[in-house]
Structure formats: structure tokens, C-alpha cells
Specification:
Largest sheet: 2 strands, antiparallel
Shape: elongated
Strand order of the largest sheet: 1-2
Helix content: 40-55%
Order of helices and strands: HHEEHHH
Strand content: 5-15%
Distance between the termini: 27 Å
Length: about 100
């Protein structure tokens, strides 16, 4: 998740999570310099003080639609599901198909 909107309050978050300055920099770097030719998001994973890294993650369009937190996408996906009697799986499949076809 992009933490830039919390950048001014991040000292509190850093203290709460017990992040080092290096880990804080890693968290704030997430999704800042993504390759525009590739479709992926970055995630920060920390295993205590043993390992902290930012990893790329790429999921299928269907997986993205199933877990998106973007309100406009959720509303649209729910509308698609309603076309199939509330069947979210069928709604996601139809929405992904339409998006791939440019609709």
C-alpha cells in the first residue's frame, strides 16, 4: 500500500511498528519508481530485524478485481456481480473480459 498520504504522520507509524530508519525509507519507497512498461505493485515485507525488503507482486486482472480497495472499481465490480444474480465470481470474470476487450 502506498504510504505517501501518511508521510507527514509516518514517524508515529514508524514508532508503532518499530521500524528502523532504513525500513521507514523502504516503506515510503513502495510504488514510487515502478517500471511503466510492467503492471505490478510493490509490497514491503519485514521479518523482524532479520530481513526487510520491497518485493514486486503481479496478479491476474481477476485477482486484482477481487481484492481491489479502490471504491469506484468495487462499485463497478458489484454492479457486474448483480447482473449474475450476485455471483461475484461470474461478475469478476465478465468485468475482466470487458476490460481486456476495451469496454
Amino acid at each position: 500500500m502506498d504510504q505517501s498520504k501518511y508521510q507527514n504522520k509516518f514517524d508515529q507509524i514508524q514508532e508503532l511498528l518499530g521500524l528502523t530508519e532504513k525500513e521507514k525509507a523502504l516503506v515510503l519507497s513502495v510504488n514510487k519508481a515502478n517500471d511503466p512498461d510492467k503492471k505490478y505493485k510493490e509490497v514491503f515485507i519485514s521479518l523482524g530485524s532479520m530481513l526487510s525488503k520491497v518485493y514486486r507482486t503481479e496478479v491476474s486482472l481477476e485477482e486484482y478485481l477481487a481484492y481491489t480497495t479502490e471504491e469506484s472499481e468495487k462499485v463497478k465490480m458489484n454492479a457486474y456481480a448483480q447482473k449474475f444474480g450476485g455471483d461475484i465470481k461470474k461478475g469478476i470474470a465478465a468485468m475482466a473480459r470487458d476490460m481486456r476487450n476495451g469496454n
